[in-house]
Write a structure and sequence with these properties.
about 40% strand; eight-stranded antiparallel β-sheet; 3 domains; mainly beta; about 0% helix
């Protein structure tokens, strides 16, 4: 894959203020295929919409196990953003503030026949991201085409018809483990998640876990792209001169989870747009696994976004993100590549 010189062509955080009526949110920079919304000033459930599941108003919620719901939140998805309508507190209350994280795939998708069951796939091989929807027959094991052309490092899966967990695969955990996006649990060990089979450049495998016993399932698949995205793990050091995680780019977004214990087990979400501190440290957080509004918890979450990765600036109290010897997984997307395709290095924050 070539270096993406302008990461915001494929991922962008867009903040907006609710109006209580029709509200055109512009400045995303592209027509988003995956939208993740969350209230900043209000407590509200996370909300995810995508282009593959039959239109923008089919809602699933990352902090809940609920089945897919039909809503009327969006009146349109536009070439530079989206328009929300109504006055619901969770996405458009008057004067409330919200965050949207937006990814570009490849529209509404097409049929992929690479697996043992067909999938509908919207894939961007350039940015290493695909949205995959399947109708699962009555079988305990299936292979599913993901359309990336390279091996995914991170997969998030959710059944659409039942009340089951959001189950994640991370290459660092291996094919015999899964971890839940909607919960604070440590990693779980079971061959039934991924049938103890690692993904390939064309397919991934699901086993007989209850998560997948559903008529319809959606997966979000991610591969490393130099200078744009990185998925991996690190070990905390318990120091204010904290663990440094090399990504090869200046981050715009990070989502981090402790995997070896429930203590400090929330998925912690940072980005480069929220908060009054426009440089370092990045310290305004939300937890993907609950509905709390965003918070600046002071030095307890200080993180520096650097030109080539991110670095913790606290000692890791309560298990969050830098406890000595604790293991963490992360997903990260870029603001700028460390070095562009023209060999120009980015600056530190």
């Amino acid at each position: 894959m070539a270096i993406i010189d302008k990461p915001s062509d494929y991922f962008n955080t867009k903040l907006y203020t609710g109006t209580g009526s029709s509200n055109a949110v512009t400045g995303v920079g592209f027509q988003p295929d995956w939208i993740w919304l969350k209230g900043r000033s209000v407590a509200s459930d996370h909300k995810v919409f995508d282009a593959v599941r039959g239109g923008p108003n089919n809602l699933i919620q990352p902090n809940l196990t609920n089945a897919q719901q039909t809503t009327s939140y969006f009146s349109s998805i536009n070439s530079d953003g989206f328009t929300v309508t109504g006055s619901d507190n969770s996405y458009n209350a008057s004067n409330a503030t919200y965050a949207s994280w937006n990814w570009k795939a490849n529209g509404s998708g097409s049929t992929n026949t690479d697996g043992s069951i067909n999938s509908t796939v919207s894939a961007s091989a350039t940015s290493g991201f695909s949205i995959v929807k399947v109708s699962k027959p009555n079988t305990s094991v299936a292979t599913i085409g993901h359309g990336l052309g390279v091996t995914p490092k991170f997969i998030i899966g959710k059944d659409l018809d039942g009340a089951d967990n959001w189950t994640c695969y991370n290459e660092a955990l291996g094919n015999g483990k899964g971890i839940y996006l909607n919960a604070t649990n440590a990693q779980a060990t079971a061959s039934t998640f991924w049938n103890s089979t690692s993904p390939t450049s064309s397919v991934f495998t699901i086993g007989s876990d209850n998560t997948w016993n559903s008529p319809s399932i959606v997966f979000y698949c991610f591969a490393d792209v130099q200078g744009y995205s990185k998925f991996g793990s690190y070990t905390g050091n318990g120091s204010t001169d904290g663990a440094f995680v090399y990504t090869g780019f200046k981050p715009a977004f990070t989502l981090i989870k402790r995997t070896d214990a429930t203590e400090g087990g929330s998925w912690i979400l940072f980005d480069n747009k929220r908060g009054t501190n426009v440089i370092n440290p990045v310290d305004v957080v939300m937890a993907a696994s609950n509905n709390a509004s965003e918070a600046d918890w002071g030095t307890a979450y200080d993180c520096d976004y650097l030109s080539n990765g991110f670095k913790w600036r606290y000692a890791g109290a309560n298990g969050y993100n830098n406890t000595n010897g604790a293991t963490y997984i992360y997903m990260a997307f870029a603001e700028n590549p460390f070095v562009t395709s023209t060999a120009i290095p980015t600056t530190a924050r």
